[in-house]
Amino acid sequence: MELIRSLLRPLHRWVWLDTARRARKLLRFAETEADGGRDLVRAAEMTTDSLLRRHFLRHARDEQRHAELFRGRGAALLRVLPEPPRSGYRADWLAPGERGLDDLRVEELEVDALLAFLHLSEKSAATDFARYRDVLQHDPPTRAVFEEILRDEAYHMNYTFSQLVRVSPQHHRRLLWRARLGRLWKGYLRLAIALAGGISWLILTVLYFTLLPPFAYFAKRSARQEPAGWRPVSAERNASLDRQY
Amino acid sequence: MKILGISAHYHDSAAALVIDGVPIAAVQEERLSRRKNDAAFPLLAIEWCLDQAGIGPEALDAVVFYERPMLKFDRILTCMLREFPRSWRAFPKAMKNSLGEKVWMRGVIASHLGTPGRKVLFTEHHQSHAAAAFLTAPTQRAAILTTDGVGEWATLSIGLGARRAQSPASITLLREVRFPHSLGMLYSTFTAYLGFEVNEGEYKVMGLASYGRPTLVNEVRRLIRRTPDGAFALDLDYFEFHTTAQRSYSSRFIDLFGPPRRPYEPIDLHTAEGRRFADCAASVQRVLEDTLVEIAVAVRQETGLPDLCMGGGVALNGVANARILTDSGFERLFVPPAPGDAGCALGAALYADRIHFGNPDREVPDHPFWGPTVDGSALAQLAREDGQPCDEFDDPELIERTADDLLAGRVVGWMDGALEFGPRALGHRSVLAAPHAAEMRDRLNRDVKDREEFRPFAPVVPIEAADRYFELPAGGARLARFMSGVFPVRPEWRTRLAAITHIDGSARVQTLEQSMAPRLHALLKCYGQRSGIPVLLNTSFNLAGEPIVNRAVEGYSTFRRSGIDVLIAGRTRVAKRASSAIHQEQVACSRSVAG
Fold first, then answer.
1. Which residues in chain A are closer than 8 Å to B124, comparing Cβ atoms?
2. What is the tens place of the pLDDT at every residue in A139-153?
3. Helix/strand/coil (H, E, C) string of B313-324?
4. Residues 33..52 of B with a Cβ closer than 8 Å to A: which?
C-alpha cells in the first residue's frame, strides 16, 4: 500500500500544482462537504437514538465548517487568477473529496450500516486529505486548511467506530466488510456507467454528424420562415389530454 | 372522481390529489425527500397524497402529467437541428437526458403506480399553469397570463377562463410566444451572468435590483425587441441557452455588459463593479416589468375583463406583479401560492377534472396549506430525549409567551398545522422575528439564513391593519395574500419596520386573514397589543441549501443548528438553553466520543 502511495505521489503533486485546478477542486470539495453535512442532518433526523443524533449534528456542523474553509480558500485562489478558469479537468477519480464519489442514501440504510459506511468514508477521506496536505508544500494556506480538517476527521473516525460497536456489538466487523464491498460495487458501477456514457456519447455524436444534416437543413429553412411574435393556439390543442404531443 | 396530478423532471417535482373537484393533498417532493429542488419522479409525494386520502393507486380515475413529453422532445430535437452544427456538444447529453426516462412518462407512471396506461393523461405545460392560476382563484371570469422559462414550446401564453357554479369550467389558451423567445430565459440568463444559480437565484436578482439604477435599460432592450403584433423576440446572438447547457449568455453579451460576476465572490455594493451588477439587475428587472405591463395592458383592452390570473415561474416576481396590478388596468390580480412548476401538479389535476371530464365547478379553498401536518408531541419527545427545556401550553398562553419572546428579540421557529404548497412560508413553517431593528435582519442573515446582505425579509400583517403600514393599491391586499406583490412601506413606519423594509422602501408583504391562519393571526394581534405594531418578520423555516422544514424533527434539527431561540410546533414550545449549557453538552458529547 505504501508503495502504491509513493508511486502516486508525483501524480498528486501534478493534480495540485496548477492554481486553477486547485481552486476548482477546493470548490468542488466544498460542495461535497456541504452535501455530506446535509446527509448527516438527515441521519440525525432519522435516528431515534439521542446520542447518535448529537454526534450526527456535531458532525454535520463540522462538515459545514469544512465546506466554508474549502470555499474560502478556493475563492481566494480564484482571486489571484487573471481570469476565471473555464471548466476543465479536475481529476476527481484520482483525488476525490470526502465520501469519495459515493452517493449516500441515508433513508435506505439501517443505522449500523450507515455508521459503517461513514467510518470507512471518513477513514479514506483522512488518508486522502493527508496525502493532499503532503504534496501542498508550495501552498501553505491550502495545506493549513487540510491540516485543520484532518483534526476533525480523527474525531469522525473515532465516533463512527465506537458508535458502530455500541449499536451492533456482535456484527460490527461484518458490517464494515459489507460496507467495503459496497464501496467496491459502487466503484464498479461508476466505472460501468462512465464506460456506457462514453460509448453512447460516441454513437450519438456519430449519428449527429451522419444522420442529422438533411433534417437540420429543413429545420433551419422552416425556422427562417417562422414569424416572430404571437402564435395562435389551435382549439384542438385545448381539447385532448390523451396525446403526449 | 379521484385524480392525481404530477409534475416532475425539471425543477421542483410535486404531486397533488383532487377528489370530487376539491384538492385533498398537495406536496413538493423536496419537502419529503429533503433534497432541495428535488426534480425526481415524486414517489414520496404521491405516496403521501394517497395515504392522506386513504386510497391506493388502483382507486384513481386518472393520473395527469403536467406536460406533454413528446412535444417537449420535439422542441429539444428541433432546436438541436436548427443550431446544427453548433449544437454537437449538447446533442448527446440532451438525447440521453430525454430518451432515458422523460419521454416515456405514460409507461413510467403506469409502472410506478400500477395504473393502466389509458388512465394516464397529459396536459400542456402552460395549460397546467393556467389551471393552477385560474381554477384556484375566487373569480368567475378572468384573463390568464402564464409565463416562464419554457414548457414544451410555449414560454408565454394568453388565455381566458370562465366558470359557473355547478357547470364545467373552461380555459382557452388563445396565443403564445414560443421558445427560444422567453422572458423567463432572459431573466435566468442575467441570473447566471450575475453569478447566481439559475432557477434558484432569480429572487436574488430581484433583491439586488433595488440597489441599482436601470442605467443599462437600452442595452437590455437590444437583447429583446418588441414585435409589431405586441409580443417580443430575443436577439439570439446574445444568448447560448438554446445551443448549449454550459452557458446561457454569449461572448457578445459579455461585450455589451462586461465580464460576468464570479459566483464565489460576494457582491460589494460599495465598489464600481458591485454597482454595475446591481445596475444590470435593475435594468433587466425594469425591462421585464415594462414588457409584462405592456402585454397585460393589451390583454385588458382586448378582453375587457377586470381580473387577471397569472401563473408560471415569472409570476414569482413580486415587483413585476405589483406593477402589473397598478399599471395594466386590471382591478384584481390573482397569483396562486405555487405559480411555478410544482403548482402544475395541482393545475393538471384540476384541468382534467373540470375540463377533460367536464365535472361541475367547485370552489377551491383559498389557502396554500395542503401538505403534512406537524405533530407537537413528536417535538416534545425529541426535546425530552435531548434534555432540552420543553413545555406544552394551551393556545392563549402559547400565543402570549411567543409574543413575549418576539418582543424580547428572540427568533422563533413557528410550525403550525399543514405544510404550505409552494415556495413561500405563509405562516405554517415560518421563522418569525421582531421587524423593527435592522440588526435583526443582519442577525437572521448571519445566524439563521446565511445569505447575502442585500436580500430583504418579508413582513406579515393582519389584513385589517395592512393599510396602516403599507401603501397597498386597490387589489393589493389580495395580491399580498400569498406574498406575491412588493409594495411600499409607508414612509412614517420605515424606521420602525427597518428589518423588513428594503433599500427602496418596499416590502414583500403578506396580508393575513384570520380564517387562513388563525393562530398566527392571534399572535400578530397579541404582538401588536404589546409592541404597538402588529407586524412580524416572516421568513421561510429552512437553512441555506435546504428545503423548508416539514415534520417536527426537521424543525428541531434546524433549531439546533441555527440561531433560532425558540421552537413552536403545535402547542409545544422548546427554548434553547443558555449558551453555557449548550457548550457543556458539546463537551459531554466530545467526552463520550473519547470514552
1. 237
2. 999 999 999 999 999
3. HHHHCHHHHHHH
4. 34
Q: What is the pLDDT of residue B72?
A: 95
Q: How far away is chain B from the Cα of A204, in angstroms, using its nearest Cα?
A: 5
For the cut 80, the answer to whether the pLDDT of residue A239 exceeds it is no
What is the residue type of B108? V
Query: Which value does ipTM take for this structure?
Result: 0.86
| Contact call for residues B4 and B16 (beta carbons, < 8 A) | yes
Mutate to test the interface with A, among B81, B353, B449 (most CBs of A within 10 A): B81
Chain B positions touching A220 (Cβ under 8 A) are 81-82, 84
Q: Phi first, then psi: give them for residue B549, nearest 5 degrees.
A: -65, 155
Q: Which candidate, B44, B47, B4, places its Cα nearest to that of B24?
A: B4
Residues of the domain holding A55: 2-196
B123 interface with A at CB cutoff 8 Å: yes
Tens-place pLDDT, residues B514-525: 999 999 999 999
What confidence tens digit (pLDDT) does each residue in B479-494 have?
999 999 999 999 999 9
Residues 6+ apart with CB under 8 A from B420: B337, B368, B369, B371, B426, B428, B429, B548
Bridge partners, B143 (sequence order): B160, B308
- E strands in chain A: 231-232
Q: How many domains does chain A have?
A: 1
Cα(B105)–Cα(B120) distance, integer angstroms: 9
Of B20, B19, B42, whose CA–CA distance to B31 is shortest?
B42
- CATH number, domain with residue A97: 1.20.1260.10
Which helix or strand (DSSP H or E) is residue B70 part of?
helix B69-82
Select from A45, A223, A231 the Cβ nearest to the Cβ of B176. Answer: A231
A171 is a domain residue: yes
Name the helix (H) or strand (E) containing B419. strand B418-420
Least Cα distance to B555 among B571, B574, B537 occurs for B574
Q: Does some domain include residue A214?
A: no
Region B183-333: CATH code: 3.30.420
Report which of B467, B439, B456, B448 is spatially closest to residue B534, judged by C-alpha positions. B467
Closest residue to B173, CB basis, from A50, A61, A238:
A238
- Alpha-carbon distances of B189 from B205, B242, B249, B269, B372, rounded to whole Å: 11, 11, 6, 21, 35
Q: Grid cell 412535444 — which residue?
A: B71
From chain A, the residues in CB contact with B592 under 8 A are: 51
Question: What is the pTM (predicted TM-score) of this model?
Answer: 0.92
For residue A138, the distance in angstroms to the closest alpha carbon of chain B comes to 24
CATH number given to B371-581: 3.90.870.20
Q: Using CB atoms and an 8 Å cut-off, which of residues 358-397 of chain B contact chain A?
A: 385-386
Dihedral Cα B322, B324, B326, B330, nearest 10 deg: -130
Cα distance between residue A231 and residue A219, in whole Å: 18
Dump pLDDT digits (tens) for A93-139: 555 655 544 567 888 889 999 999 999 999 989 998 999 999 999 99
Right CATH for B2-66+68-122+341-366 from 3.20.20.150, 3.40.960.10, 1.25.40.10, 3.30.420.40: 3.30.420.40
Q: Does the residue A241 lie in any domain? A: no
Domains B183-333 and B371-581 share a fold: no
Of B458, B522, B520, B511, the C-alpha closest to B482 is B511
Question: Is residue B365 reached through a cis peptide bond, with omega within 30 degrees of 0 on the bond before it?
Answer: no
How far is Cα B207 from Cα B204, in angstroms, rounded to an integer? 5
| Spans of all domains in chain B | 2-66+68-122+341-366, 183-333, 371-581
Domain for residue A237, yes or no? no
